[in-house]
């Protein structure tokens, strides 16, 4: 049988890795796919020194690949929302299957892209869009297909995890670690996407859709970054037996779906709390399988290429199946997607870590306890530190039981209004993940 012809658009880190893996493992991949896979064209503005492309035709124009009648599958690895969006729609219009690693594109334009792909009977595969080399899309979409998924929680941004790990282990400053992550090639072109949680929210949006069978709704994801975290909070969390991680959480409740990315305290003895550096991990809790944990490299040249090529193998195998009988893009049949709403953040429920800077007066603790108890907020633990020499204030650290976000917001406003409380109360969500 003739080989399947693919065109790679973008020869950066992931594009170069994809070319190299396809070349190195060509024989093994063909044995799996049932046909050879040939890179028939590459679109790149500049060569990649880590990638020996030999006689493969190269064009500077990505649309040459989308319009090339020889090409069966377009691999979109240019990133971003605009050109990539046009490229993918053009490839679909021309009847080509698409493999992409572009989380922003799928999270924001995925509903439109999948509708067009269904019209044309082509596949759009996106395993590499979430958590790099971890095959978590396939695990949720196919491996856990028997389950009603209750919740999932993931460390899905390597740059953010690297920063938090270095801050905790070496006491390094935020900006310094970010610079190193950029130099290592992990950070997004705009690193605010990493540290403000936007990149994680793109990935969480995709995971929530395939876990719960809902349309992609990136605009409803709540996002809070890690830029405001201090070493003091990292250390207090540690003293209480927790680690701070930048977590994406999606949870199904009767009222709707929680979809939120924010710094989170996790008990230090959970496996996921020990996922360090640029590594990613996703925990998925289903009613039949219980909790499962998927761990691995969330970014990088060959880990991400591993997912791109796995998608390619799936596409090659699926081309022999009737389009109606393929695995649906969002795991559930398109006419069976649910309209269970995404909850606004103040309707979400969590436990909270609070740090209050108080004057060293008798009765302050009693006032704090009264404010919380009046709002039905149950305290799990409390720790009062020694007076800080530099400002004469006493840090009070509290961990609450689970409560509605709107209640904690109200309590924080009341705490900040106390004469004996100075400055803003620091609040970080806490998840037990059990
Ligand atoms: N900037 C992303 C990260 C790359 O740090 O995880 C992989 O999506």
TrEMBL record:
Which reactions appear under catalytic activity for this entry? L-homoserine + NAD(+) = L-aspartate 4-semialdehyde + NADH + H(+)
UniProt KW keywords:
Amino-acid biosynthesis, Methionine biosynthesis, NADP, Oxidoreductase, Threonine biosynthesis
Q: Which residues bind NADP(+)?
A: 9-16
- Family annotation (PROSITE patterns): ACT, HOMOSER_DHGENASE
Ranges where the ACT domain occurs = 353-430
Instruction: For this entry, list what GO says about its biological process.
Output: methionine biosynthetic process; threonine biosynthetic process
Task: Tell me the route in metabolism or biology where this protein functions.
Answer: Amino-acid biosynthesis; L-threonine biosynthesis; L-threonine from L-aspartate: step 3/5; Amino-acid biosynthesis; L-methionine biosynthesis via de novo pathway; L-homoserine from L-aspartate: step 3/3
InterPro entries listed in its UniProt record: ACT-like_dom_sf, ACT_dom, Asp/hSer_DH_NAD-bd, HDH, HDH_cat, HDH_CS, NAD(P)-bd_dom_sf
Q: Which GO terms describe its molecular function?
A: homoserine dehydrogenase activity; NADP binding
Q: Which Gene3D superfamilies match?
A: 3.30.70.260, Dihydrodipicolinate Reductase, domain 2, NAD(P)-binding Rossmann-like Domain
Signal peptide per UniProt: none
Entry keyword Amino-acid biosynthesis: yes
Q: Where in the sequence is the active site?
A: 203 (proton donor)
Could you tell me the EC number(s) of this protein? 1.1.1.3
- Binding sites annotated in the UniProt record for L-homoserine: 188
Binding of NADPH: at which residues? 103
| Coiled coil regions in record | none
Query: Which family, according to the similarity comment?
Result: Belongs to the homoserine dehydrogenase family.
Q: PANTHER family given for it?
A: HOMOSERINE DEHYDROGENASE (PTHR43331)
User: What protein name applies here?
Assistant: Homoserine dehydrogenase
Identify the species of origin.
Pseudomonas nicosulfuronedens
């Amino acid at each position: 049988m003739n080989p399947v012809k693919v065109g790679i658009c973008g020869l950066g880190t992931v594009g170069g890795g994809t070319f190299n893996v396809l070349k190195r493992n060509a024989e093994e991949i063909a044995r799996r796919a049932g046909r050879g896979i040939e890179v028939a064209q590459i679109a790149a503005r500049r060569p990649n020194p880590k990638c020996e492309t030999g006689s493969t035709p190269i064009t500077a124009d990505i649309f040459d690949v989308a319009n090339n009648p020889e090409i069966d599958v377009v691999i979109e690895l240019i990133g971003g929302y605009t050109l990539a969006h046009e490229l993918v729609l053009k490839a679909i219009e021309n009847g080509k299957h698409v493999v992409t690693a572009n989380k922003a594109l799928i999270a924001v334009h995925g509903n439109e892209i999948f509708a067009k792909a269904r019209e044309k009977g082509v596949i759009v595969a996106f395993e590499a869009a979430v958590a790099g080399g971890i095959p978590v899309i396939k695990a949720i979409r196919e491996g856990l297909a028997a389950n009603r998924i209750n919740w999932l929680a993931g460390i899905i941004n390597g740059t953010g995890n690297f920063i938090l790990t270095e801050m905790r282990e070496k006491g390094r400053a935020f900006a310094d670690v970010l610079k190193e992550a950029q130099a290592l090639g992990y950070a997004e072109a705009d690193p605010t996407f990493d540290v403000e949680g936007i990149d994680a929210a793109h990935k969480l949006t995709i995971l929530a859709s395939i876990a719960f069978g809902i349309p992609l709704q990136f605009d409803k994801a709540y996002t809070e970054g890690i830029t405001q975290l201090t070493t003091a909070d990292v250390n207090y969390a540690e003293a209480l037996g927790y680690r701070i991680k930048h977590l994406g959480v999606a949870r199904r409740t009767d009222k709707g779906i929680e979809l939120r990315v924010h710094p989170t305290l996790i008990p230090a003895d959970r496996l996921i709390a020990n996922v360090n550096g640029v590594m990613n991990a996703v925990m998925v809790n289903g009613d039949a399988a219980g909790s499962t944990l998927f761990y691995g490299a969330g970014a990088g040249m060959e880990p991400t290429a591993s997912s791109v090529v796995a998608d390619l193998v799936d596409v090659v195998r699926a081309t022999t199946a009737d389009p109606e009988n393929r695995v649906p893009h969002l795991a559930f049949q398109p006419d069976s997607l649910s309209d269970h709403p995404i909850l606004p953040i103040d309707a979400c429920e969590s436990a909270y870590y609070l740090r209050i800077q108080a004057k060293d007066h008798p009765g302050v603790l009693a006032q704090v306890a009264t404010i919380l108890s009046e709002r039905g907020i149950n305290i799990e633990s409390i720790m009062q530190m020694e007076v800080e020499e530099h400002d004469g204030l006493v840090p009070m650290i509290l961990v609450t039981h689970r409560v509605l976000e709107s209640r904690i917001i109200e309590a924080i406003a009341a705490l900040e209004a106390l004469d004996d409380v100075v400055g803003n109360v620091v609040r970080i969500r806490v998840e037990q993940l059990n």
